[in-house]
Specification:
By secondary structure, this protein is mostly beta strands. The protein contains one helix and seven strands. The protein has one domain (2-99). The longest helix has 13 residues, at 13-25.
């Protein structure tokens, strides 16, 4: 389970949690994880997911909103073992995850 505290973005919180959970549980990614997202309007964010008490805690490190966060969006996730994944989220919300 992923918990988001502090300045957490409302946009896509469930989507980000699903992606991180899949990367850790299915693909063996090792926390802490760093996620960077860039939306089609140039908005971007950086989030760090670290273990705390057996759960992943999300901390928003940086955020820039150009107009508003929207779709489509590209996400890059890197883990502690230097593994990387790319996630593309289409306008309709469908996502494609590729472990690199």
């Amino acid at each position: 389970m992923v918990i988001c505290r502090g300045r957490c973005m409302q946009f896509g919180r469930e989507l980000f949690a699903e992606v991180v959970t899949e990367l850790v549980d299915v693909h063996g990614f090792v926390p802490p994880l760093s996620m960077v997202g860039v939306a089609d309007d140039g908005s971007m964010f950086g989030v760090r997911f670290a273990q705390d008490g057996g759960q992943l805690q999300a901390q928003v490190l940086c955020q820039h909103v150009e107009i508003q966060f929207g779709l489509p969006m590209n996400l890059m996730v890197v883990d502690d073992a230097n593994r990387a994944a790319r996630v593309f989220v289409a306008t309709g919300g469908q996502r494609t995850l590729s472990v690199l």
